[in-house]
Automatic annotation (TrEMBL), chain A:
SMART domains: WD40 (SM00320). It comes from Panthera leo. WD repeats lie at residues 213-255, 257-299. It comes from the Eukaryota. The lineage of its organism: Eukaryota, Metazoa, Chordata, Craniata, Vertebrata. This is Nucleoporin 43.
From TrEMBL, chain B:
InterPro entries: Nucleoporin_Nup85. It is found in: Nucleus, Nuclear pore complex. This is Nuclear pore complex protein Nup85. Its main location: nucleus. The keyword Nucleus applies. Belongs to the nucleoporin Nup85 family. Functions as a component of the nuclear pore complex (NPC). Pfam families: Nucleopor_Nup85. Component of the nuclear pore complex (NPC). Keywords: Membrane, mRNA transport, Nuclear pore complex, Nucleus, Protein transport, Translocation, Transport. The keyword Transport applies.
Length: 380, 687
């Protein structure tokens, strides 16, 4: 973690997302999108970390990210997801959901599709609609799912003008984030500490399953699903706690890990190396959780003989079954928990770290101190 | 009251003719409103079409520059780091925080007296590097600007930033590093070299030409190098001249030797000042001798260089163009005539240099006054002049804070508010909070407020009150933003503000028909009255629709249910429904009864509760015991007797009839249940 580049960008960053690399290609991440919030004018911007600093050498040194293009966005950018290589879906505090199209030829962004009142409130007794912030969006080509402060869930399709499916009053409180579980199923987290699973095949506005934290009703702000094991889910809460859930069993989290001192805004499993997990928080910290079993340590345990038999048996089972080890790295109880190694990635405390994204060896995060941090050597 | 320092500047507002019309104004935080009035001066109204606009006049427009925002954000980090150093020192820091970057970078170095002192110098340098980075970016922007107007604007910003950095650097040398005689001059030389930097491009230009010594600016370059004390480079240039003109080669060599032998203080050297002075005296005499002997008589260029090296004032003043400004003149003059100048004597030389340089032709400008005040070691004057001259509080606030950390401002208290440091920080932070706000009345437009919070935190006297007043005025456009504001308040135990923010959000949710959300917010605010209100809405909705909404919340209230009686009732009543749904009739029955007997249920709801008892009474097996049935009967009679008996016509009459029918049905059901219960209990006892 030697090389972490910071760049001040004169706007508070609410979201950062890597552009996915084409499947099967050997490319590493080089373009990411950001969204800003709380400014007079907000923008969705595309940045490059490619080495074209040499070509265009206005003060930028190699390794620093350069702005490719940006476009005005009405309202705060509440969430941002890449739909595919060229398209970005942005959720707005005005309740609008916009699909932006990137034209690589002339480096511009344009609006390709927009659902203006995806989220709205209906006042008591009056038919007038007032907009409600859209808080989360998730894409799985061709589907886009959005959730909002109005407790509504929308299912859009990129080629449809109207919502394909809307679940009104899906939640009595604010929905904070959404992710896909298995294709027709989604997972939402809300502001009273519940995790709900919805099945789009079912009619009606009832979730197929509700999981919740114990009595405290601590709001959950973010959710991510394990890339390989679809039943393993991580959530982050208002108290900065990291919860790991197994949605197949129980209605309570498998483990609760004390983490940040304030709201955890985002949690992400590493997409190709899911023993690693990343979290960021309002307290201005960005953490790397490493639950991979350390190979040299394991061999030293073998040398120690029978003293730590639990570890030993565990390691043997790891060798016997690779899948078993993957499952146990987040779900197993105490011995594994002890092995989670946590590193803080930012050199100094700043204002809130609102968003992060990981892809391959690269990590990007954005803060309220109007800085974007990028590192390209996550595992060095 | 302090006297006014200078005439206030006149600002003309475009479009308003103040000669013809009277104007009125009103002060706001950091800005004022100005508009024309229809009030005419003495003469009869000429009905000149008035200006229909209201103007918002603001002093610190800089906050709106994209590039300066980087300055604010980056310096915020340095500022917080500096305050943490202080906390560490005084042992106030309560929790083991992650090390901040300032403490990581600082390794104790040998050149300075103490570790702490070294860190303060480092902080000062960090601030300056941020100013410089900003300046460079602004410079790029000025070059890239498409229209000349904005180009000019950027350029003027560059010059302001450069002046800031110049002043800061001088303050750093004089007040923070407190360089003693000897090193002081070296620092001042660096200072001048850093800020008169055109020479480097000139150097590259000359060296890049085919024949450097024939370049038109060759001698200018050499002179500048000598004026800046860059004698090694000057010597190299002279050797180029010597190579091409054999006639002057000898002279160049001699002058070059003089340059080489000039005694200077080098940081690693252990020689004393007295030794240096002695050596310097010898060297000076040698230069003098060469001049008297007419060694350089045949080359006016070389002769003038030699005169400069003798510190000849007339010769120096001839180079006014190349010196650019009086402080360059001052430093060159000190270099060649008083290399071991003491800090205390600086102001004397500074004043005379300023007088000599301006020569009565022009009067000193604000920047000159500020620098002069610094040379006089009058910190307060520096800060005062800067406050007047600069258009925003960033500079004075940060500089004053740093100087305060150097324990330089202890004695100074203002006749209002608290001390000067705090006063300036408060002004700056308030500006950050006001950022963008007045320009639009819509909600999402104030974006530097988060920075302001930390500044308020480090104002011990009035910071908290200011924060309390400002934080309540932040528009809460989304829940996420509200959560951020709440977090700030909760960390500082600002319970009053927390309650008011939650209440605002709860009200908003009620207006939007989001009862679940409203209830969550009132629970978070521990606002019992509002929780009661929302619970009533839930119960009303239930009565109207016959089913509960927002079950996910109500079913999971937990201990929060105790917040208000009505909320407890809501939770328990829902629990009754759940028991009933799960066919746990006995539990349901005793819960229902206890809701009435414990007086938790509001009276108006008793009819509903008793009606809910009906299906339980009609079950095949006996659910209510005799005792419970008696209780229920008592409740029913309480209710019936408490009802006003009035014979009103029409709809109300009808309503009453329905109610009476209900009561009769209940009485019947209760009586039958009592009978069954007595039989059952009696037969159980008998068997």
């Amino acid at each position: 973690m030697e090389e972490i580049y910071a760049k001040f960008v004169s706007q508070k960053i609410s979201k950062t997302r890597w552009r996915p690399v084409p499947p099967g290609s050997l490319q590493t991440a080089e373009t990411f999108a950001t969204g800003s919030w709380d400014n007079e004018e907000n923008y969705v911007s595309l940045w490059s970390i490619g080495d074209f600093g040499n070509v265009d050498s206005d003060g930028g040194f190699e390794g620093e990210h350069q702005l490719l293009c940006d476009i005005k966005h009405h309202g705060d950018v509440m969430d941002l997801q890449f739909f595919d290589q060229e398209r970005i879906v942005a959720a707005s505090s005005t309740g609008c959901v916009t699909v932006f199209l990137h034209h690589p030829n002339n480096q511009t962004l344009s609006v390709s599709q927009q659902w203006t009142t995806a989220h709205y409130h209906t006042g008591p007794g009056s038919p007038s609609r007032s907009s409600a912030p859209c808080t989360g969006v998730v894409c799985d080509n061709p589907e886009i799912v959005t959730v909002g402060e109005d407790g509504r869930i929308n299912l859009f399709r990129a080629d449809h003008k109207e919502a394909v499916r809307t679940i009104d009053n899906a939640d009595s409180s604010t929905l904070h984030a959404v992710t896909f579980l298995r294709t027709p199923e989604i997972l939402t987290v809300n502001s009273i500490g519940q995790l709900k699973i919805w099945d789009f095949r079912k009619q009606g506005n009832e979730p197929s399953q509700i999981l919740s934290l114990t009595g405290d009703r601590v709001p959950l702000h973010c959710v991510d699903r394990h890339p390989n094991q679809q039943h393993v889910v991580a959530t982050g809460g208002q108290d900065g706690m990291l919860s790991i859930w197994d949605v197949r069993q129980g209605t309570m989290p498998v483990s609760l890990l004390k983490a940040h001192e304030a709201e955890m805004w985002e949690v992400h499993f590493h997409p190709s190396n899911p023993d690693h997990l990343f979290t960021c928080s309002e307290d201005g910290s960005l953490w790397h959780w490493d639950a991979s079993t350390d190979v040299p340590e394991k061999s030293s345990l073998f040398n120690q003989g029978g003293r730590s038999s639990t570890f030993l048996s565990h390691s043997i089972s790891n060798q016997a079954n690779v899948h078993q080890s993957l499952i146990s790295s987040w779900l197993s109880t105490d011995p594994a928990k002890d092995r989670i190694e946590i590193t803080s990635l930012l050199p100094s405390r700043t204002l809130s770290v609102n968003s992060l994204d990981v892809l391959g060896p690269c990590l990007v995060c954005g803060t309220d101190a109007e800085a974007i941090y990028v590192t390209r050597q996550l595992f060095s | 009251m302090e006297e006014l320092d200078s005439e206030p500047t006149v600002t003309l507002i475009p479009g308003v003719n103040s000669k013809k019309k009277q104007m009125c104004f009103d002060w706001g935080p950091g800005e004022m409103l100005v508009c024309e009035t229809s009030f005419n001066k003495k003469e009869k109204s000429e009905t000149v079409p008035g200006c229909p606009f209201i103007y918002i006049i603001r002093k610190d427009i800089d906050v709106y520059s994209q590039i300066l925002r980087k300055l604010f954000n980056e310096s915020h980090g340095i500022f917080v780091g500096l305050q943490r150093i202080e906390e560490e020192l005084t042992g106030k820091s309560r929790k083991a925080q992650l090390p901040c970057f300032l403490s990581l970078q600082d390794a104790p170095c040998s050149c300075c007296m103490s570790f702490h002192f070294c860190r303060l110098v480092r902080v000062s340098k960090n601030y300056r590097s941020v100013i410089r980075a900003c300046m460079e970016e602004m410079h790029q922007a000025a070059i890239a600007a498409k229209d000349p107007a904005s180009g000019r604007q950027f350029s003027s910003q560059v010059s302001i930033l450069s002046a800031m950095e110049l002043i800061w650097n001088l303050c750093e040398i004089l007040f923070i590093e407190v360089a003693p005689a000897g090193p002081l001059l070296l620092h001042l030389l660096d200072w001048v070299r850093l800020h008169v930097c055109e020479v480097d491009s000139l150097l590259a230009d000359v060296l890049g030409s085919e024949n450097p010594s024939k370049h038109e600016s060759f001698w200018n370059l050499v002179t500048i190098l000598v004026l800046q004390g860059r004698l090694d480079e000057a010597r190299q240039m002279l050797s180029k001249e010597a190579d091409v003109s054999p006639t002057s080669a000898g002279m160049c060599r001699i002058l070059g030797d003089l340059m080489r032998t000039m005694p200077v203080l080098s940081p690693g050297n252990t020689q004393t000042l007295t030794e240096l002075e002695l050596k310097w005296q010898h060297w000076h005499e040698e230069c003098e001798r060469h001049l008297q002997d007419g060694t350089f008589a045949s080359s006016p260029h070389l002769e003038s260089l030699c005169k400069i090296m003798l510190g000849d004032e007339a010769a120096l003043l001839e180079q006014k163009e190349l010196l650019n400004n009086w402080y360059h003149f001052l430093v060159t003059r000190l270099l060649y005539s008083h290399p071991t100048v003491k800090p205390i004597d600086l102001h004397f030389y500074a004043q005379s240099s300023l007088d000599l340089f301006l020569g009565g032709e022009s009067s000193p400008e604000p920047l000159d006054n500020i620098l002069m005040a610094a040379f006089e070691f009058d910190i307060h004057q520096v800060i005062k002049e800067c406050s007047i001259a600069l258009s925003n509080w960033w500079f004075v606030a940060h500089l004053t804070d740093l100087l305060d950390h150097c324990k330089l401002l202890q004695s100074h208290n203002l006749y209002f508010g608290s001390n000067m440091r705090e006063f300036l920080l408060l002004e700056y932070a308030s500006g950050l909070f006001a950022h963008h706000r007045p320009s639009r009345l819509s909600s999402d437009c104030c974006s530097l407020w988060q920075l302001g919070v930390d500044y308020f935190d480090y104002c011990p006297e009035l910071g908290r009150v200011s924060l309390e007043l400002h934080i309540e005025r932040i528009p809460l456009s989304t829940e996420q933003k509200a959560l951020k504001v709440l977090r700030i308040c909760e960390q500082r135990q600002m319970t009053e503000q927390v309650r008011s923010i939650c209440k605002i959000l709860a009200m908003k949710a009620v207006r939007n028909n989001r009862l679940g959300s409203a209830l969550s917010w009132s629970i978070r605010a521990k606002d019992a009255a509002f929780a009661t209100l929302v619970s009533d809405r839930f119960l009303r909705d239930y009565c109207e629709r016959g089913c509960f909404s927002d079950l996910d919340l109500i079913d999971n209230l937990g201990p929060a249910m105790m917040l208000s009686d009505r909320l407890t009732f809501l939770g328990k009543y829902r629990e009754f429904h759940r028991f009933y749904g799960e066919k746990r009739f006995c539990d349901a029955a005793s819960l229902l009864l206890s809701l009435m007997t414990s007086q938790i249920a509001p009276r108006c709801f008793w009819v509903t509760l008793l009606t809910d008892a009906l299906p339980l009474l009609e079950q095949k097996q006996v659910i209510f015991t005799t005792e419970q049935t008696y209780e229920l009967m008592r409740c029913l009679e309480d209710l019936a007797s408490g009802r006003p008996v009035r014979g009103e016509p029409g709809a109300q009459r009808l309503q009453e009839d329905i109610e009476n029918t209900k009561l009769e049905m209940l009485r019947l059901a209760l009586a039958r249940n009592l009978a069954r219960a007595i039989i059952k209990e009696g037969s159980l006892e008998g068997s």
